[in-house]
């Protein structure tokens, strides 16, 4: 019973934690511009994250090594350094976008100046991370982020044409660069590398062993599938509310209007609350992910479960991450614009993150009897090729479409 | 947003903050159009677009200044609907 409850809670946290500012920006814009026709990109991204998160959780449980440890071990110091530098930069940009997003949502709720809200968001996040234990952090943000399920309810309430929705699940090509750009954005948002860094390091934090492999499998599958449904609901709501009015949703406030259209002020408040905790949770994951990467690469003591004085450099690193993100957002840069850069640059770094995971997960020397099976290897390589394509296309598409503006 | 405000399905805080973003964007679009070098055959339509963007920004400003004034909200809502249709037609004509 206790295990079932733990599993249910873990899944709930995964649902609430799946959506971040990347989905809130890209999926909403994708739905407004192309209605349901990019739903397949959500499906693709969700399957890819399931495949690779399962592998990284399994590697962590079996070998006791989190992803960045694996990156350095398999790719060597030089490639490892490049991956580390890229990962730290992307984590920082993403963290700044998430902190800025949290501040914008707070402003929509409280109507104070945005500069004050950025300070409030940053301080609140640092205090929560400093004082709340690891599983508490996961659950606070995961459960509260579930308020975003209002978008799933709204998607059904708005009575979309389910036949067209089903057609959107089949990959298609509209022939426009903008369509390709949003496809890359939607996939990139779903499979952001920081999620896997955080997930595998979290497995070490939670002291997973081979006994937890089934938990890992069920957790990633159900959690990410249900998170994917939430992500798809954003596209459906946007297709129903914004596309018919030719609205180009460039603000987080516009995103919340989708739920408001269906359920009025209650829908609006639930959407804003869910968005606040979703981006807040993602901010924590990004800050930790950056600190995990650096600490694991440098061989420092790391982990939220350790006392701060036992892992001082790890603690200092995530504090510095928050401070830098705060400075970046306080310059006045638009968090939505920042999100687009973060997602596209994350997409570029995908192969560097996922290749080492795949190589270790299929290596019997490390994994013993828990090595990838045929299905795992086929899916792993198939998605690696797709992610490589996404990675190579990301920057050119951003340039051609002027960041999705044309 | 105006639609939800008229139907009393939103919060005044949200209208004030999000309205501020939207009216600033409308104003910014008007300024951009004003500063751009526009070919002669498009100048008249560009002027129409500038006027529309300014009017839309003004109506949103009225909404966020007094979101509880139901009569004013309804008038602004009607104007915004009309201008939205005009903006769409204008966009398609260019």
Description of the molecule:
Chain A has 406 residues and is mainly α. Chain A has one domain (2-400): Amino acid/polyamine transporter I (Up-down Bundle), CATH 1.20.1740. Chain A has helices at residues 2-18, 21-34, 39-63, 67-110, 114-131, 134-145, 150-157, 162-168, 177-190, 193-205, 213-241, 252-298, 312-330, 335-361, 364-367, 374-400. The model of chain A has no long low-confidence stretch (mean pLDDT 90). Chain B contains 4 helices and no strands. The longest helix of chain B has 24 residues, at 12-35. The two termini of chain B are 27 Å apart. The chains are: A mainly alpha (406), B mainly alpha (94). Chains A and B meet through helix 4 and helix 12 of A and helix 2 and helix 4 of B.
Main features:
heterodimer, A: 406 residues, mainly alpha, Amino acid/polyamine transporter I, 80% helix, globular, B: 94 residues, 4 helices, 81% helix, 0% strand, elongated
Gist of the model:
The complex is a heterodimer of chains A (406) and B (94). With 406 residues, chain A is mainly alpha-helical.
CATH architecture of chain A: Up-down Bundle
Radius of gyration of chain B: 14 Å
The share of residues in extended strands of chain A comes to: under 5%
Termini separation of chain B comes to 27 Å
**CATH structural class of chain A:** Mainly Alpha
Low-pLDDT segments, ≥5 res of chain A: none
Can you tell me the number of structural domains of chain A? 1
Number of domains of chain B: 1
Q: Helix tally of chain B?
A: 4
The chain-level mean pLDDT of chain B equals: 89
- CATH superfamily (homologous) name of chain A: Amino acid/polyamine transporter I
Number of helices of chain A: 16
Structural class of chain A: mainly alpha
Strand content of chain B: under 5%
Main sheet makeup of chain A: none
Structural class of the secondary structure composition of chain B? mainly alpha
Number of strands of chain A: 0
Order of helices and strands of chain B: HHHH
CATH-defined topology of chain A = Amino acid/polyamine transporter I
């Amino acid at each position: 019973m206790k295990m079932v409850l733990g599993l249910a809670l873990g899944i709930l946290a995964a649902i609430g934690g799946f959506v971040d500012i990347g989905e809130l920006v890209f999926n909403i814009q994708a739905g407004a511009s192309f209605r349901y026709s990019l739903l397949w990109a959500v499906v693709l991204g969700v399957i890819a994250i399931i495949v690779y998160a399962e592998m990284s959780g399994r590697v962590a449980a079996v070998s006791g090594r989190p992803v960045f440890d694996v990156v350095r071990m398999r790719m060597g110091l030089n490639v490892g350094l490049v991956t580390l530098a890229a990962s730290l930069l992307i984590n920082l940009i993403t963290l700044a976008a998430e902190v800025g997003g949290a501040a914008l949502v707070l402003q929509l709720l409280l109507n104070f100046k945005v500069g004050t809200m950025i300070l409030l968001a940053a301080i609140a996040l640092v205090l929560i991370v400093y004082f709340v234990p690891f599983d508490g952090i996961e659950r606070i943000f995961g459960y509260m982020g579930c308020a975003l399920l209002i978008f799933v309810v709204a998607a059904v309430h708005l009575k979309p044409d389910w036949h067209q929705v089903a057609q959107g699940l089949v990959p298609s090509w509209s022939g426009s660069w903008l369509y390709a750009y949003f496809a890359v954005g939607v996939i990139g948002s779903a499979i952001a590398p920081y999620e896997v860094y955080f997930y595998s390091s979290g497995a070490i934090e939670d002291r997973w062993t081979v006994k937890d492999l089934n938990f890992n499998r069920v957790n990633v599958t159900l959690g990410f599938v249900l998170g994917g449904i939430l992500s798809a609901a954003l596209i459906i709501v946007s297709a129903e509310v914004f596309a018919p009015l030719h609205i180009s949703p460039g603000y987080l406030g516009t995103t919340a209007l989708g739920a408001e259209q269906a359920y009025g002020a209650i829908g609006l408040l639930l959407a804003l609350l869910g968005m606040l905790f979703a981006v807040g949770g993602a901010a924590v994951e990004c800050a930790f992910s950056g600190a995990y990467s650096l600490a694991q690469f440098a061989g420092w003591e790391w982990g939220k479960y350790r006392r701060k004085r036992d892992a001082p450099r790890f603690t200092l690193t995530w504090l510095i991450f928050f401070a830098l993100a705060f400075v970046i957002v306080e310059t006045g840069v638009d968090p939505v614009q920042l999100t687009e850069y973060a997602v596209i640059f994350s997409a570029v770094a995908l192969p560097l993150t996922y290749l080492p995971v795949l190589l270790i997960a299929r290596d019997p020397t490390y994994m013993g009897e828990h090595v990838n099976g045929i299905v795992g290897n086929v899916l792993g390589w198939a998605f690696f090729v797709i992610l490589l394509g996404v990675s190579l296309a990301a920057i050119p598409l951003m340039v051609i479409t002027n960041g999705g503006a044309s | 947003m105006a639609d939800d405000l008229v139907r009393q399905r939103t919060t005044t805080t949200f209208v004030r903050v999000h309205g501020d973003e939207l009216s600033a964007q409308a104003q910014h679009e008007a300024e951009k159009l004003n500063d751009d070098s526009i070919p002669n055959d498009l100048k008249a339509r560009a002027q129409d677009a500038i006027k529309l963007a300014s009017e839309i920004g003004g109506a949103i400003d009225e909404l966020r200044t007094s979101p509880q004034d139901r009569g004013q909200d309804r008038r602004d809502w009607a104007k915004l609907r009309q201008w939205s249709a005009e903006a769409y037609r204008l966009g398609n004509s260019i």
